[in-house]
Design brief:
Elements: H1 2-15, H2 17-35, H3 44-48, H4 53-67, H5 72-81, H6 83-86, H7 92-116, H8 122-142, H9 148-168, E1 177-178, E2 204-207, E3 212-216, E4 221-226, H10 230-247, H11 251-261, H12 266-290, H13 307-330, H14 333-355
Antiparallel strand pairs: 1-4, 2-3, 3-4
Helix pairs in contact: 2-7, 2-13, 4-13, 4-14, 5-7, 7-12, 7-13, 8-10, 8-12, 9-14, 10-11, 10-12, 11-12
């Protein structure tokens, strides 16, 4: 009885996950308005000053979630180059903080959508999160002490690496097979596929004695792969974790490549990678907001967070995270990938110029 009830609760949560997803940013905005330290004269004008960021961050979140990378890879360069033109320059720690807080909600939103579709390998995601945590925390603490030119140079290196890896990524390999069309070699019916009670539709997963995983998504498409290659993924996610904490992105870009290189099907790789990036983004944002007191010469100061910006960027990234799965089915992911990679390369060149004093 308890197992049946648990399955029913899980199915109900997945079916109505969009309700919980949109309640989270609402609770965040209410909490910020009620509890966050803001200027004494903060009125309607203070809270609505950056309303236009909603459209910008919705578009950015839709793009990055469609190809499975960190939101800060677009948000941080935007805050460096575009935001000062219409507002004012931000310190590196502040702009990374905005990017991380925003992408935490956007990636969490998109992650739930991938879980709903049955495209997340929970065992893989747990091992990757646990392995990446120390590096993410270390990178976040490092951001408090590095000089701004060095920050721009490291950010440029990370973007160039992300661009290269995006161009190298084969987003077409590991395509699913439809269980409806599969015929056994002896001419009989297709093989039995897993169908879990706590998942929507025909979704399910099972692992045989040799470690081969068979996964079926909500649409009935099935994927077969192995979880081997833990060492390669650990190396990629640890290096990416340092950049995730330092600049707000990196773990997703390096991580997705290691997934594909170890023959994880692309849709499962993207879905699982969302969980890892979302979890580490939440952790890194917490360190950026509250970790100043842990670094010599710095103190924790919540007033340095531009709360009137994040009340618009958080709902925007949440919306973008929900839109992304639909965009990925309607558009050519390869075209989006190439466009984002080219943009990263251009931004990286500009960042190197900034680091060298040329801008």
């Amino acid at each position: 009885m308890s197992t049946s009830l648990s399955s029913s609760v899980k199915r109900a949560f997945l079916r109505y996950q969009h309700v919980f997803v949109f309640l989270a940013p609402l609770a965040f905005v209410v909490g910020v308005y009620a509890l966050a330290p803001t200027p004494a004269d903060a009125g309607v004008g203070y809270w609505t000053e950056y309303w236009w960021l909603f459209a910008v961050f919705t578009l950015g979140a839709t793009i990055v979630n469609t190809v499975g990378i960190s939101g800060s890879a677009l948000f941080v360069p935007f805050l460096i180059f575009v935001f000062p033109v219409v507002a004012y320059p931000l310190k590196p720690t502040t702009l990374v903080k905005i990017g991380l807080i925003s992408e935490s909600f956007g990636l969490s939103s998109s992650s739930l959508a991938f879980i709903q579709y049955g495209l997340v390998d929970r065992r893989l995601s747990l091992s990757l999160v646990l392995g990446g945590v120390p590096f993410v925390v270390g990178g976040a603490l490092l951001s408090f002490v590095i000089p701004e030119p060095l920050f721009h140079a490291l950010l440029g290196i990370a973007l160039l690496a992300a661009a290269y890896l995006l161009f190298r990524a084969d987003l077409a390999h590991g395509d699913p097979t439809s269980s409806d069309d599969e015929v056994a070699t002896d001419g009989g019916s297709s093989r039995d596929l897993p169908d879990d009670d706590d998942k929507l539709g025909p979704a399910g997963v099972e692992t045989d004695d040799s470690g081969v995983v068979t996964r079926v998504d909500r649409d009935g498409d099935d994927y077969t792969y192995s979880r081997g290659g833990y060492l390669e993924r650990f190396l990629n996610y640890s290096v990416g974790g340092v950049f995730q904490g330092l600049a707000g992105f990196g773990i997703g870009e390096l991580g997705i490549i290691s997934m594909l290189r170890t023959q994880v099907p692309v849709r499962v790789a993207i879905g699982t990678n969302h969980i890892v990036v979302a979890t580490t983004a939440v952790l890194a944002s917490v360190v950026h907001v509250f970790g100043g007191g842990l670094v010599g010469g710095h103190t924790m100061d919540l007033t340095t967070t531009p709360w009137n910006m994040v009340v618009w960027t958080v709902p925007a990234t949440t919306l973008g995270g929900q839109i992304a799965p639909y965009v990925s089915t309607a558009l050519d992911t390869g075209t989006i990938k190439s466009g984002v990679g080219a943009l990263f390369a251009v931004i990286a060149v500009a960042l190197f110029a900034m680091a060298g004093g040329g801008i």
